[in-house]
Amino acid sequence: MDDSKFTLLRRQMIRDQLEPRGINDPAVLEAFSKVPRHLFVAEENRHLAYRDHPLPIGEEQTISQPYIVALMTQSLELQGHEKVLEIGTGSGYQSAILAELTEHVYTVERIEKLSLQAREVHSLLGYKNISYKIGDGAAGWPEESPFDGILVTAAAAEVPPLLLEQLRPGGRMVIPVGDRLLQDLLLITKEETGINVHKLCGCRFVPLIT
């Protein structure tokens, strides 16, 4: 499949999957039109990369469906100047979307093989504003905190307290919370007066392993 076909599939993904479900931030839609999702999946699955479902990426991990990636990204309300922490590099697709929208992305992955694969694709695409760490995602990246936004791509039984500590006042975190069968995608806003929690939707993510 040539590049022009993939470009067409990206446009169809935005038109059929994202815009009808309320993804309307122009910058987010532009990022999805630019980032070649098919490069973040195995070659044998590239023809499926723009379908409306997750795909396996090895190591018992998945790349989330495009709509969920878009919803999580849009919910951070990025303006372009922020430092964002991503927990769960995975394929690297979400990192690339964030890198299009913000000043710098710090991404943590516990599986070294996936982190190295993501770096390779990011390097191929020319991203210079992504930093990588291999380790426990629930611990975050305290040396680089505080963060304006935190995006977690694995489900926790509860919001990890260390991540809340690393979120700047006024910052936003998107995280799936629940057990293996039932999870809610939450938007958490850290205010001077406390924490506000808003449920975005039900979801199904791989578990956050610490």
Task: Please provide a written account of the structure.
This protein is of the alpha/beta class and 210 residues long. It has one domain (3-203): Vaccinia Virus protein VP39 (Rossmann fold), CATH 3.40.50.150. It is built from six helices and nine strands, in the order H-H-E-E-H-E-H-E-H-E-E-H-E-E-E. The strands form two sheets. The protein has a seven-stranded mixed β-sheet with strand order 5-4-3-6-7-8-9. Strand 4 (104-109), helix 5 (112-125) and strand 5 (130-134) form a beta-alpha-beta unit. Helix 1 (3-18) runs antiparallel to helix 2 and helix 2 crosses helix 4 (93-101). It starts with a helix and ends in a 7-residue tail after the last strand.
Structure summarized in a few sentences:
The chain is an alpha/beta fold and 210 residues long. The chain is 30% helix and 29% strand.
CATH topology: Rossmann fold
| Count of runs of 4 or more consecutive helical residues | 6
Strand order of the largest sheet: 5-4-3-6-7-8-9
Task: Say how many strands there are.
Answer: 9
Measured distance between first and last alpha carbons: 39 Å
Number of domains: 1
Q: Could you report the average pLDDT, rounded to the nearest whole number?
A: 94
The share of residues in extended strands comes to: 25-35%
CATH superfamily label: Vaccinia Virus protein VP39
- Low-confidence stretches at least 5 residues in length (pLDDT < 50)? none
CATH class: Alpha Beta
Tell me roughly what share of residues is in helical segments. 25-40%
CATH architecture: 3-Layer(aba) Sandwich
> Could you state the order of secondary-structure elements as H and E?
HHEEHEHEHEEHEEE
CA radius of gyration: 16 Å
Oligomer: single chain
Largest sheet: 7 strands, mixed
Shape: globular
Structural class: alpha/beta
